[in-house]
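Give me the fold.
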Amino acid sequence: MRPSAARISNPTPDNVCTVTYREVKGKKIITANRDETPLRAARELSPYLTASGEAWHIAREPVKGGTNMAVGENGAVCVLLNGAFQAHAPGGHYGKSRGLVVLESLEYSTLKAFAEAGDLSNTEPFTLLRFGDVTEEMRRDSERTHYTSYSDGSERLWASAQLYSEKVREDRKRWFRHLLASDPDADALLDFHLRGGEGDPENDMVMNRGGLVKTVSVTSVRIGPGEIAVIHRDLIRDSLQKLDIRRTAPC
C-alpha cells in the first residue's frame, strides 16, 4: 500500500515509528525502528544528564537537539512515535519540537506526572512511551493529552499513526503475533525489526520511501536486574554501537 502524498511531504518525523515490548526470562526487551529523513539520523546514543542529575543515554537528533529515544540508568526507557491516534495534517506551525518534549519528560518521575504538568498546547501530535515498573503511554492529539498505563507485562507493538495507515499498523501487529508463536528471544526480536515484512519496501519493518523517509536505525534495549544492554544499529552508516549500562536503581 503506497502512503499518501501528504505523508511523504513531511519528511521530518523526529521520532521512532515502530516499537515492540516483550519480557524474556526476567528481562524487559524494547526494540525500536527509527523512520526518519537521513539528514536527521542520530549516529549513536550519547550520555545526557537531567537537571536533577539523573543519567540517561539519548539518540540526540542533530538539527534541533532533541531525541526520539532515551535509556536511563534507572532502568527506564522512553520512546517517541509520530502522531497520536490517526494521521494529522503535516506542516503546521508548532512551537515545540517533540524531541525536546522527550527531554522535558525525563525531568518527571513518571509520564503521568508529566502529562498532568507539562505544557503541550503547541506541540504536533505524538505518542510517548515509558517502560519501567509499568508501561506508560501518553498520546497528545490536536486537542488534549490521553494517558494509559499497562501493568500486565503483555507483549505489545506500537506503530506511527502518522506514517502508517491503519491497515499497515494492523499488518505489523499480525507479523508480531506470528513471531510470538515461536517464543522469540531478544536476538529474534531484533531480527524481526530488521527483516520483518512482506516485500513492500515502503511498509516493511525496514522501510524506504524514495529516500525521503527511511529506517535509519534499529535499537534493542535489554533490561535485566542489574544492568542494561543496548544494541544500536545505524543503517545509514552501517555501524554498530553496543552499550552495557549498570543500573543505579530498580525501576
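The longest helix spans residues 166-180.
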